[in-house]
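Lab notebook, page 48
Experiment: co-folding of the full assembly
Goal: obtain a model of how the components sit together before planning crosslinking
Operator: M.T.
Materials (sequences as entered):
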Amino acid sequence: GESVGLHLPTLSVQEGDNSIINCAYSNSASDYFIWYKQESGKGPQFIIDIRSNMDKRQGQRVTVLLNKTVKHLSLQIAATQPGDSAVYFCAENYAGRRALTFGSGTRLQVQP
Amino acid sequence: DADVTQTPRNRITKTGKRIMLECSQTKGHDRMYWYRQDPGLGLRLIYYSFDVKDINKGEISDGYSVSRQAQAKFSLSLESAIPNQTALYFCATSTGVNTEAFFGQGTRLTVV
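Observation: model returned without errors.
Model output:
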């Protein structure tokens, strides 16, 4: 069956380092991918999205990379800050499915 | 004010009780969703609605029902709450399928 999963449940990085959060998906028909950040006690907040006709998309301090060959998605956070500490979810969708499917999340811990 | 508002934010209820979680939005979106979040399982779709007359079951709809009272309001009901429905519940809205979903702050429900 289809699934969206993450390689690591917890990632610990030093402040100022770059962070890379990975996500694997299994449905080759998936054509839309999105990353959310969830801080404690809050709802998920949009970070960045990418469509399958792109390999890379950049935002402010964040970059999403999509490798359709191996069905892999990553979120790169540059110069990680304490405020980046949160749980990060990837989600995906494809034409014909009516709502996003979410992965289980990775907790990012930023060490001072 | 929040664009997607959920009430209550926290609720403790007894097994067998009926409970309603409410969601209202000011974003003017037609599409609304209810997700459930359990530790380590990410967000799972309970129900979704693409307009007032269009309501659909998600992957875990058993034990839940919904009502779309207006474009801006989408309520989730647990007809007879059970302890394994203890979870964090999120309402979300969107303009389309392959677009960003906007989440409320969540309702933490505990069934004892």
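Interpretation: The radius of gyration of chain B is 13 Å.
Next step: discuss with group before ordering constructs.
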